Amino acid sequence: MEEGLELAVLVCWSVLLLGVLSLLMIFLSQMWLKPARIRSVLSKQGIRGPRPSFLVGNVPEMQKIQSNTTNMITRQKQPSDIDGQRVQHNWDSSMFPYLQQWAREYGAVFLYSTGAKQHLYVSDPKLLRELKLHNSLDLGRPTYLSKPLKPLLGNGLIVANGHEWAYQRKLIAPEFFLDKVKGMVGLMEESTMALLKTWESRILESESSIVEMRIDQDLKKLSADIISRACFGSSYSQGNQIFAKIAFLQDALSKPNLLFGFLNFRFFRTETDKKIRNMNKEVDAMLLKLVKDRRAQSESGGVYEKDLLEMILESAARDSTDMPHYRHKTDRFILDNCRNIYFAGSETTALTVSWTLMLLSLHPEWQERIRAEIVEVCGDHELYHCLQDMDTLRKFKTLTMVILESLRLYGPGVISAREARTNMKLGDLDVPEGIHMWVFYPALHRDSKNWGPDANEFKPERFANGVSESCKYPQAYMPFGFGTRLCIGQTFAMLQLKIVLSLILSKYSFSLSPNYRHSPVYKMLLLPEHGIRLIVRRVQ
Question: Which residues participate in heme binding (predicted)?
């Protein structure tokens, strides 16, 4: 009896020891062996970087550089004045300053670590070109970044990988082709005209016929209205409610430490965690109701003009028949991609219009040039009707130059990452599986070696002959991302930007408010921390 008990105890201890050893081996493999393998492959090719520490990598140094930079900028900050002399466009030096410091020390391609995660910073034009041309599914979105963003984006197109991503793109991308998008011009105009009437009312109420406004809030509502109507037709009012909840999720999940790749170990949920979870459920419930209502409306023959949601529902239904293994995912696919369209389709365009008007308020001569172009192109025709012609929109060369330059200096996308899901070749570089490749757009778009000594200045004329002639390495201009994951809404966004800006600038002129505080911040996108306050006047 005693011998049997001793044997059982011995077996238990052996199993426990094996379990501990297994966990230890897994820990060492993930925290030491795998990172060492990745670093070895790259260091043999001459790629250097700051020396990492075990477990924490370069995170302490990153935090120290960020803290020192923040403190220095805080001491130097002064309020903006009305002539804009203190609105400097080299704000990128305060955002991820460790990346730029290391780029100066180690070159255009370098290696750094955040614990077990190994990162390759890329700003070399030749390697950027290879990234743009690479079209396999083996270069995807880092999984450690996607998981925390699920309450906001689900497993939609922005975060999906592999065949799941390819399937979603195949369904959604055709709905953003030009032949579909040009049918949305009318609703873009109608929404913009409604905003202009609101501004007109504010000016009429003003004794001086000029008004100071925080335009970014109004433009966010405008963009929300456009994307809601484009997606949901007559259900845009429910869509606007969803935007408010998605805005909360965006703010709650906008944590720079997410980029460090550390897991957040907590035994208890915080109040914010609970709010995120509840908000996530509410967004799903609202989206699901829209989907069910639309399906019922379609079955009864009540939908006469197809919007984006209707087209996605039809595509999803068709592909669930053609591809039965995706059938059970149809509702989840629709809900997740509605989230993605709300977030990427609305917020990015609103920010671009806001930053563009801020730049134009500093450069009134470009406002006048755009208005002169509108008169030249449209002649005696009403602008509202003139914009219905796609050939006419292509003639807005000055407006296009201004938009491209605004996207260069204040593009809503700040930083982008790719994870190598297998060993691969990019040009002459052997890329090991598991490496995370990072591209920091503001640094690329301000590189004086590429753009010239005036890289930090607003000069739309650099795009007079298109992107290909704007700089030495046009592949380093990436306002809509790069490679196979290039933004599918690029055509929709450019069309909306042209329509909204031409209508606004034909009616109103802008100058910088003395209350404007220039402070771009990173919260998944490039946001104006204190809003964009401008003086608005009616054009005479």
Answer: 487
